[in-house]
Write a structure and sequence with these properties.
This protein is mainly alpha-helical and 484 residues long. The protein is 65% helix and 2% strand. The chain has helices spanning 12-16, 18-22, 24-28, 31-54, 63-71, 87-107, 120-129, 145-162, 164-195, 201-210, 212-216, 218-241, 246-253, 255-275, 279-286, 290-303, 305-345, 360-364, 383-426, 445-448, 477-480; strands at residues 464-468, 471-475. The chain is globular, with a radius of gyration of 32 Å. The two termini are 49 Å apart.
Length: 484
């Protein structure tokens, strides 16, 4: 009678893959992932600041007035505005205000902007009408999460449209930076998810350098080339339509071919939106080149569109909650530090500082809030100004830690999603991962090389001693019971 196989019980969380996605937080807060992400964030910030310093005419950029001119009818002040400090700084300030407003909207119970105190068009008009020097003290407005997302996109579109070559330089340098550090984070996460082992930072960076040009850096560029190649063909078809007579006849007849090209461009765009985050995890897991990584990502999305959407929705919701938690922890650390430093500089209101008889810590470091770790204010003079600058660097580093966690969580969740979609589409086990030869020393010896089995020697034959004519003679055991 054949034995019935044992039943394998699995919860709905395990079946849906949510347990692997929920591991993203624990992986993202690991000190190695955070350190790599922090190095990338700081490097990108330095790159943007260098471009601001070297780019001609960067001081005349104003993202808010550009958006207000398109979306509102608010007229800017007639007074000449103080020049701003660069394209990159304008863009980062605008993006930061949108993210802070999104958090304020959630806290005020208006995540979608319904019932908000003001529309996002009105908020943009108010900001654009202010003098540039007054915008540093702007308080985030509860305009809704969705309007904040629209403004995030419009700010990036402003950089690309109004400062195209600056945007190409900045995003190209950003791609070069994140291809190295992001690829290393994906590799470390993939090894932890598949083998439950941890790579060191030098080995992870070594893997990213090995597959840098062939995979991590070139995979996003390949999709850009594909999209603009199809767009260029459509532009050529539009130019052909301008030819008298011939363009009218042939252009209209071959419009179906243009529609096919447009469909191809739309599919590439959809694939980039939903499968783009899988490019680097595929390189980190499979060790493949850019074309293979892009084709695998598009195949996973096309074969499992609803599971892909489900994974991204879970990752976004869970990641948002984790981001709020991490930001709260950092804010609480800053608030506790500020409070106890204030008790030391002016306990119970004693030892007032300055002409206004205030607390010295409030002069060099205003009290942080959940939305703004470093509220803007006028810097003091003298050594107090130097202290304010140094403290600003430390607070900026604390803010960069939040951004570093965001990037680390993104790569961790994308790697987990890639493994889940690979298992669902190709039937490959979660534990299967490509290992370079130079990485073998980082793993367990039993996992890096097949175990060697040594067969034991055959047992020695046991004989029987007989005495014949006074001499001891040993007879083998197999002959002892035989016939003489």
């Amino acid at each position: 009678m054949a034995e019935t196989p044992p039943k394998v019980t699995m919860s709905w969380l395990e079946a849906s893959g949510c347990t692997h996605l929920f591991r993203s937080f624990r992986l993202a807060i690991h000190h190695t992932n955070i350190l790599l992400a922090l190095m990338a964030v700081v490097s990108a910030w330095i790159w943007g600041s260098l471009l601001d310093a070297a780019w001609p005419g960067a001081e005349s950029a104003d993202v808010w007035k550009h958006i207000a001119a398109i979306e509102t009818t608010v007229e800017p002040e007639a007074e000449e505005s103080t020049p701003v400090e660069g394209i990159f700084k304008q863009w980062t300030m605008q993006q930061r205000w949108c993210l802070e407003s999104a958090m304020v909207s959630v806290r005020h119970g208006s995540p979608w902007g319904i019932g908000a105190d003001m529309t996002w068009q009105a908020a943009v008009g108010q900001i654009a009408s202010k003098n540039v020097t007054d915008r540093g003290s702007m308080v985030a407005a509860p305009i809704g999460v969705l309007p904040c997302g629209i403004l995030l996109f419009k700010g990036t579109a402003w950089m690309v449209r109004q400062h195209f070559w600056f945007a190409m330089m900045f995003f190209g340098g950003g791609l070069a930076i994140w291809s190295l550090f992001g690829g290393a984070i994906c590799r470390m996460t993939a090894v932890q998810l598949t083998r439950d082992e941890k790579l060191s930072i030098p080995v992870a960076l070594g893997y990213a350098r090995t597959h840098y040009w062939s995979g991590f850096f070139s995979a996003p560029l390949l999709t850009v080339v594909m999209f603009f190649a199809l767009g260029s063909l459509l532009i050529m078809a539009g130019a052909f339509l301008r030819v008298p007579l011939l363009g009218d006849v042939l252009g209209s007849l071959f419009l179906g071919l243009s529609l096919i090209l447009g469909l191809g461009a739309a599919l590439v765009l959809i694939g980039v939106i939903f499968g783009g985050p899988l490019f680097w995890p595929n390189v980190a897991i499979e060790g493949c080149e850019s074309l293979d990584a892009v084709s695998r990502s598009f195949h996973y999305v096309g074969a499992n569109p609803w599971r892909t959407l489900f994974c991204w929705v879970v990752a976004v919701v869970y990641g948002s909650l984790c981001l709020v938690f991490v930001r709260f922890v950092v804010f609480l650390a800053l608030k506790v530090t500020h409070t106890f430093l204030g008790l030391g500089t002016s306990p119970f209101g004693w030892w007032q500082y300055g002409a206004e008889a205030g607390n010295k810590i409030d002069v060099i470091w205003p009290a942080p809030t959940f939305e703004q770790f470093q509220p803007a204010f006028e810097s003091p003079d003298g050594l107090a100004g130097f202290a304010h600058f140094v403290i600003w660097l430390w607070i900026a580093l604390a803010g960069k830690l939040v951004w570093a966690f965001t990037a680390s969580f993104f790569f961790s969740a994308a790697t987990a999603t890639c493994l889940l979609l690979r298992r669902q589409t190709d039937g490959v086990d979660m534990e299967d991962i490509y290992i370079d030869t130079y990485e073998a020393g980082e793993f367990d010896a039993t996992a890096a090389a097949p175990a060697m089995t040594v067969e034991p020697p055959p047992p020695a034959s046991v004989g029987v001693q007989l005495t014949l004519k006074g001499k001891a003679v040993e007879v083998p055991a197999d002959k002892a019971n035989g016939e003489p």
